Amino acid sequence: MKPIIFELMALGLFLGVTGPAKADDYEFTTIDVPGAALTQARGINASSQIVGFFDDAAGRRHGFLLCEGKYTILNVPGSTRTVSQAINDLAQIVGNYVDEAGVRHGFLLREDGYTTLDPPGSTDTIAYGINQLGEIVGSSRDEDGTTHGFLFTEDGYTTLDPPGSTNTEAGGINDSGQIVGYYVDAGGATHGFLWCEGNYTTLPDVPGASFTAAWGINDSGDIVGWYTAGGTDHGFLLPEGEDTYTTIEVPDSTLSVNFRINDLGQIVGFYRHEDGTSHGFLATPIEP
User: Does CATH place domain 27-285 in 2.40.160.20?
Assistant: First the structure.
């Protein structure tokens, strides 16, 4: 099983996978916080505001907000590390931070400041996604070391565990309340899932992949994530209503991961360049 991500039912159909998207399909923009040793873009809203994290020259991790070309550094007060994971159209941001005792917590950032998010009994929490209604999804580890997905609403916390799962990561939620993520089964295999109105659907694995993770979903139902094949991670797009995964990768990259897609079809994630450096990216569809 992979650790909590990067800190890095059958559908009745068979999904295929295409080759990488053509360069003409998207305009790729590299995202690098000035002076950063590493940058990852994790979330994007309908206004194209982007959040993520970067490592500074000293190796300390900070969250960031990119808005109209300007970077704002985000650090939870008293934290030693901060990661921004997602942003909704109200500019509310969720993510995670590590406190001075070395414990990781989820957070919600609104105009009135930061709020810590920890499901009851959790020892390690990350808030990964937030929708326009302020509903939040993420993952937490219990005292036994098992990771569970969660949904946080005004009614409190709901645990998300697909049937047969041994560990679950809930990555994204749209305004209809559809949730995507991935889980590990009893045999150690990983699968993407879609949760809708209390029902779990296991997404077919990308053919030939050893790992498939759905991570972001927009209001149209388009899903992005990544899969591992040949020892390398590749980003994918699964458009709503289609039966084929499309691989979308940054040109000249040796590794590419897609985290989030907004209602304009813009995708954010990170990639590793041929020279070994890691960068965030924005992929914007080019109208035909």
Answer: no
